[in-house]
Each structure stands twice: as structure tokens, then as C-alpha cells.
Amino acid sequence: MKKSTIIGISACVILAIVYIKYKPNYDRLTFMTTVFTGVEQYENFSRIKDIFPVTTMKASSTPYEMKEGSKISLPESFSFKGKEFNVDDFLTYTDTGALLVLHKGEVVFERYSLSGGRDVNWLSMSVAKSFIATAIGIAVDEGLIDIQKPITDYVPSLIGSGYENVRIKDVLQMSSGIEWREDYADPESEVIQLGRIMAVGGSMDEFIGKLKRKYEPGTVNHYVSGDTQALGMLLTAATSTSITDYVEQKIWTPLGMETNGYWMKDDQDMEMAFAGLNATARDYAKLGELYRLKGNWQGKQIVSAQWVHDAITPDAPHLQAYVKKPYTDESSSFGYGYQWWIPESTEGDYSAIGVYNQFIYVNPTRDIVIVKLSAFSDYSLTNEPKYFLEEETIEIFREISKQF
To answer: For the chain, is the Cβ count within 10 Å smaller at the N or the C terminus?
Structure first.
């Protein structure tokens, strides 16, 4: 056999070995480099555990199955800022994988499409933030955390960062003052850099520890996904356990989750607290139900009613809807609580919201919880409103709720 042939075969063998060894990172990198580019993601959102390293929250041994209620039909259209939209067209356009509607805890509408299904897990992005805040609330109830104290009292590794001496409550309310760009269309923004760690490796804790301060804490509501990751660090420090184990013990098992839940994790086994939760629509809905019921589940107070109230109440001027932001000429139509969004409303509705048009929506006045899991491929192609559609989606939910 010619020497060149032997060399060629050897090179192919080496390349094959390298590919096999690094294929997981290749899949991760491929996913992370295609988000927010217009590439369809619904097949990826339903199989995250096959792409990334994850931790597992086991399904409850006594799962709670929601009762079936009298079924409803979706409204044909909804109105937003004087313009009529077709509901089915909107749901299709935003790549909706699941739409689930509960009334008084009973399933009155349920539809799955794309790669979705009742037993299919879905990456909900920033919906995870509301789970983290709930776990913080439970730790507060247990006396493990005082949100009036600085986060560095619990997480000394953040001393010297922008989080030094920042009150935990301000971190919960996205008012930490951290310098941050939550710009999904900018590959160099901090949120993309943080997410990139999941693709190329590294430590999210280390990244958070290098962030600097821009505003006086407690004065500006500036959306910082890093704040939630810092809250994840707080949760693990205060409870002496992982996010996965604590959420499983305090939320997943008590609420009778039907399926395993998964958290994406970095190379140091730290969960992606700000956006890495994977669950089914019915299990996501149980968090909404818990809040609709003021923290009480089947006669047991999982998280205090006071925490639920505080979490969905913008309690300072800078947290209100339509307050002009100092870093932009625009204002948001949403107020902000403890990792929950509060739209201007006469019915007290509020929502967990994740990028790609994903929601856990609660209307306590009409006893409604709605889950929308999506993979809206055009999401955030630019910072124009047509590439977000959160306000429009809330209007669909309100139109649905009018039936009750």
C-alpha cells in the first residue's frame, strides 16, 4: 500500500475520532449559532436534552392530572391597536408548538403541533426566570434568604463585581444596575455571550462575576438575564443544594409534575437558571395555577401568599408600565415584579414570558391560566416590534379569557 494512501486513511481515522469526541459540542455550537437568525428551531426546542448536557428533575411519583372541563373554541380574531388579526394565522406565524387553556384548573382547550405533544418537553427560555423566583420565595419562607440583604452576603464570589452590596430584591426586580445588553440580534451582547458558554464551554458563574455596574441599584428597571443567573447562584448558596434538587423538592414534586423536567447546565454543572428549563405544557401550567391560587396547592401552601402578591406587584415608580427608560427613548407596556411581567390591566393579569413567543399567562379575575410554547423563528431578527409580538399575544389571551 502506498505511503500516501496510508497517510490518507490515518487522517480520516483521526478526523473520525475527533468528530465522535467533539460531536456533542458541535451540536451545541450549531444550535447556539443559529438562534435568532430566522432558522426554524421547533425541532431543537423539543429535544434539548439530546443536544446539551442537562440535569433531571424526576416526575412526581403521584402526578397530578388536571380535570377535563367543557371545551371551548378559540376566537377567530383579535384586535390590537385598531388592527384585526386572525388568531389561527397568528399562532401559525409564531410557530406555536403548544397552546393550553385552563379555567378554574380544568383543561378547556389543548392543541399541539410541530414537534410538540402532551408528553414532549419544550425549551421555554426566560419562562425559567419565574420558576427561579418562586424557588427564591420558598427559600425566603424557610428563613434561608432575606431579600433586603445584599446578594454578596450569600454569594461572596460576587464581591468585586457589579453585584457587590446590591440588594436581592433589586436583583429580583431587574433593577440591579448591571451594565448589560439584552440584544439578541447583536452577537457581542452580554446575553449572547452568556448563552454562548453553553456552546463552547466555560463557567456562567465566572461570567456573572465579571459584570460591572452602570446604574444605581433600585432606580432603573433594565432587563438583565444575568440577574437571574445571579439569583441561581444565590439559591444554590443559600440552600446548600443545586437548583435542580431544590426545585424538584420544593416545586416539581409538590405540584405533581407529570414528566421529567430538565435544566441545561454548563461545564461546571451549574444550571442555566435564566433560560434553560425544559418541561411540558401541562407542567408549566401548574406554576401558573399555583400563582392563581395564591401559592396554595391542594390545601398545602407551597409558597406564601405574600410572596405571590409581591412577585406580581410593581412596587416602585421605575417598575411601572410606560416608564421611560434612561437607556432608550422607548418605554415598555409591561411593569415588572419578581421575574414576572405585569401588563397594564384592569383585571390583574400577569405573565412569565420567554423569547420565541412563550408564555405562562394568568388572569386571576377570570380564573384563567394559558400556556403558549413556541419557536417563533423570526423572533428578534431586529429590535422592531414586529419581531417580538408579546403585546399582541397578550391580547389573544385576553380575547380567549373573555369567554369566562
So the answer is: N
